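Hi V.,

Quick status before I head out on leave. The structure for the redesign project is tokenized and pasted below; the design run finished overnight.
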């Protein structure tokens, strides 16, 4: 789960990391009022969950409240990589002498936290990492031992030089945030050195590990429909794992592995999956209803495949959910069903009683749905 800059900076501040003061605005008038209250020059920064805001014109310096109004008016409503800006951050401008980069992320191979730091921060950090990797200091932190000032402080000094003590305080705070909130990324870019000699987080990025969010219910308030989309938010509330894609064949499957294999087969036979959707191990018929409701809202979907290999998930409950959905929803596209496993006989009998046939062979089912044949639909 990604955070907007203003949210990320709020967490950094809670962990003792200096950030420029600021507030968000959703109208030009609000931006002007915030700038008046703050006094002095401010930055007007688009709050969208994509990179490249500066290059797209979504970050502007305002020397006075009227400029804050004008810049906010230009940025609000702007589309950046397909996302419309609905909020801007009005933050105190930083008089930057130089820019550094620092981040913490998960090193899955080394089973550790990896810190990356560089004296070459700013918008071109990815290009620097690719073309001049020697400019980036990398070191690992053992999660069982945590940060060590002697060892890790010396590594930071290689990037931050004379400001290493300040850098240590900042990275220590980042590490506390990273571990306390189960993050997969905490990044400050740029970590700006002001002309007064003070390091501040001029911009920040924080990403949480979705798999650990059950331990942090307080973080649910940060969840944004901008990142997940309305369908993904609906699916989550219904207990479904859903990711939208660009294809035309809607998929409802039980089990993430089977869902991936199903999408691979669809691609293999010339089709394109419209989504990943795992109804999970539960046998709640309502899940099938919710799944079909979400998929049928997608205008790109021209066919639907339900692929169930019943284990904990019972085929008769899935069949009950299919029949419930067909009674409550208007299904305008062909529906193909593959049903096998626990209580398969009972599930098939229920479907056949409603004039619906189901495949047992997955390859045959996928070939049928790719052809667009109404296999499994009402007779």
């Amino acid at each position: 789960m990604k955070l907007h800059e203003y949210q990320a900076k709020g967490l950094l501040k809670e962990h003792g990391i200096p950030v420029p003061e600021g507030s968000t605005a959703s109208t030009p008038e609000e931006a002007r009022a915030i700038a008046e209250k703050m006094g002095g020059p401010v930055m007007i920064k688009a709050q969208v969950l994509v990179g490249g805001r500066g290059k797209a014109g979504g970050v502007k310096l305002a020397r006075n409240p009227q400029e804050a109004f004008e810049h906010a008016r230009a940025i609000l409503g702007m589309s950046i990589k397909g996302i419309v800006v609905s909020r801007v951050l009005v933050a105190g401008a930083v008089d930057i002498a130089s820019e550094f980069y620092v981040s913490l992320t998960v090193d899955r191979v080394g089973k550790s936290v990896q810190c990356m730091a560089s004296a070459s921060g700013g918008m071109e950090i990815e290009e620097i990492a690719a073309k001049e990797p020697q400019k980036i200091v990398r070191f690992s932190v053992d999660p069982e031992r945590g940060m060590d000032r002697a060892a890790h402080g010396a590594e930071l000094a290689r990037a931050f030089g004379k400001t290493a003590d300040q850098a240590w305080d900042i990275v220590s705070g980042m590490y506390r945030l990273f571990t306390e909130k189960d993050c997969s990324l905490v990044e400050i870019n740029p970590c700006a050195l002001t002309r007064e000699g003070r390091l501040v987080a001029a911009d920040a990025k924080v990403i949480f590990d979705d798999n650990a969010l059950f331990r942090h219910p307080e973080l649910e308030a940060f969840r944004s429909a901008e990142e997940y989309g309305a369908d993904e938010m609906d699916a989550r509330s219904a207990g479904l794992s859903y990711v939208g894609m660009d294809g035309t064949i809607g998929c409802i499957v039980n089990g993430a592995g089977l869902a991936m294999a199903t999408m691979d087969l669809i691609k293999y036979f010339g089709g394109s999956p419209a989504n990943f959707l795992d109804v999970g191990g539960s046998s709640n018929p309502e899940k099938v209803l919710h799944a079909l409701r979400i998929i049928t809202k997608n205008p790109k979907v021209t066919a639907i495949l339900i692929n169930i290999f019943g284990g904990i998930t019972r085929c008769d409950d899935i069949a009950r959910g299919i029949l419930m959905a067909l009674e409550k929803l208007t299904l305008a596209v062909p529906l193909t069903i593959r049903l096998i496993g626990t209580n398969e006989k009972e599930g098939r009998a229920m479907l056949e009683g409603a004039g619906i046939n189901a495949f047992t062979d997955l390859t045959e089912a996928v070939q049928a749905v790719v052809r667009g044949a109404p296999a499994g639909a009402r007779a």
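Above is the designed sequence. The chain is about 35% helix and 25% strand.

G. will cover questions while I'm gone.

Best,
W.
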